[in-house]
Design a protein that fits this description.
Elements: H1 2-19, E1 23-28, E2 35-39, E3 46-51, E4 54-59, E5 62-67, H2 74-83, E6 93-97, E7 114-119, H3 131-134, E8 136-140, E9 143-144, E10 154-155, E11 158-170, E12 173-179, E13 182-189, E14 193-196, E15 203-206, E16 212-221, E17 227-233, E18 236-247
Antiparallel strand pairs: 1-18, 2-6, 3-4, 3-7, 4-5, 8-17, 9-10, 11-16, 11-18, 12-13, 12-17, 14-15
Length: about 250
C-alpha cells in the first residue's frame, strides 16, 4: 500500500511539472527582456544601469560601461556583461538570451532607460526592449532555469500551438517564432489594407491588424531552449503586445 501511494505521489508530481508549461502567455509593449542577467557574488553588490546608448554592469563598485554604435548588436551587450569584472578581475555577472537573438540590432535608444538596479543570483529582467524604438513586440514561452544549471539554459519542453497579438503601429508586420536562437516560423502581413468606407463608395486604408495564427500540431520547443514570438512593425510601434498558447508535447 505504501509503495502504491509513493508511485501515485510521484506520478502526481510529474504531472504537475509537465502541466506547468501548458497555458498562454502575453507580454505588453516595453515588457520584453532581450537578456536575463544575474550576479553570483553574495558578499558584494552588482548593479545594471541602462542609459541612452550605454549599458553599465557595476561589480562591487567597479563600473564596466558599454557604449553602443551604429552597428551594435545584442551579442555585443551579452558579451560585455559576461566579461564585466570587479577590481580583482573576477567575473560575477552572467547574461543569457531571452526575448532576443545574437544578431538583433541594439542601437542607442533600443533599450528602456533604467536606473542602477541591484541584482542577485536569480535571473533578472532589468534590461527591456523599448518597443517604440526597436519596433517589435516579443513574448517568451520558456522559463529561466534554476541556478544550478548554469548560464544560458531554460527549462521547457512544450509546443507553441497558437500565436496572437495586437502590434499597434504602422507599416507591414512580420510575425516570427524563434526557438534556440533560430527562426522556426515566419508570416508576413501587408499593412495598410484597404476596406470599404462608411458609404461603401471608396476604399479607405486601415492599419488595424491583429495577427492570429493556429499552428496545428505546433512548433516543438525542446527542453533547455528559449522560445519566443516576435511581431515586428516596419514603420512605427506604440502600445499593444503579443502572446502565445502552449500545450504539452
Amino acid at each position: 500500500m505504501k509503495k502504491s501511494m509513493k508511485y501515485l505521489s510521484l506520478i502526481a508530481v510529474l504531472f504537475m511539472a509537465v502541466s506547468l508549461y501548458a497555458g498562454s502567455g502575453w507580454t505588453d509593449a516595453d515588457g520584453a527582456s532581450p537578456l536575463l542577467v544575474r550576479y553570483l557574488d553574495n558578499d558584494h553588490v552588482g548593479t545594471i544601469t541602462v542609459a541612452a546608448g550605454v549599458v553599465t554592469a557595476t561589480d562591487d563598485g567597479t563600473a564596466n560601461a558599454l557604449s553602443f554604435d551604429a552597428a551594435g548588436t545584442l551579442d555585443d551587450v551579452l558579451n560585455h556583461i559576461n566579461s564585466a569584472t570587479n577590481a580583482s578581475g573576477e567575473k560575477n555577472f552572467q547574461a543569457m538570451y531571452w526575448a532576443g537573438i545574437a544578431a538583433d540590432s541594439c542601437l542607442t535608444n533600443y533599450l528602456v532607460v533604467a536606473a542602477a538596479t541591484t541584482i542577485k543570483a536569480e535571473w533578472n529582467d532589468v534590461i527591456l526592449w523599448d518597443t517604440s524604438n526597436c519596433l517589435h513586440y516579443d513574448c517568451v514561452g520558456s522559463q529561466p532555469s534554476p541556478s544550478t544549471l548554469g548560464a544560458g539554459t531554460a527549462i521547457g519542453g512544450f509546443n507553441i500551438t497558437k500565436i496572437f497579438g495586437e502590434p499597434t503601429g504602422t507599416g507591414d508586420i512580420t510575425v516570427s517564432v524563434y526557438v534556440g536562437g533560430n527562426r522556426k516560423y515566419l508570416k508576413f502581413y501587408e499593412s495598410p489594407v484597404y476596406v470599404l468606407g462608411v458609404a461603401a463608395a471608396t476604399n479607405v486604408a486601415s492599419t488595424y491588424i491583429a495577427p492570429e495564427v493556429d499552428l496545428d500540431e505546433g512548433i516543438a520547443v525542446p527542453p533547455y531552449q528559449v522560445a519566443f514570438v516576435r511581431m515586428a512593425c516596419a514603420s512605427s510601434a506604440t502600445t499593444g503586445g503579443c502572446g502565445m498558447i502552449k500545450t504539452n508535447p
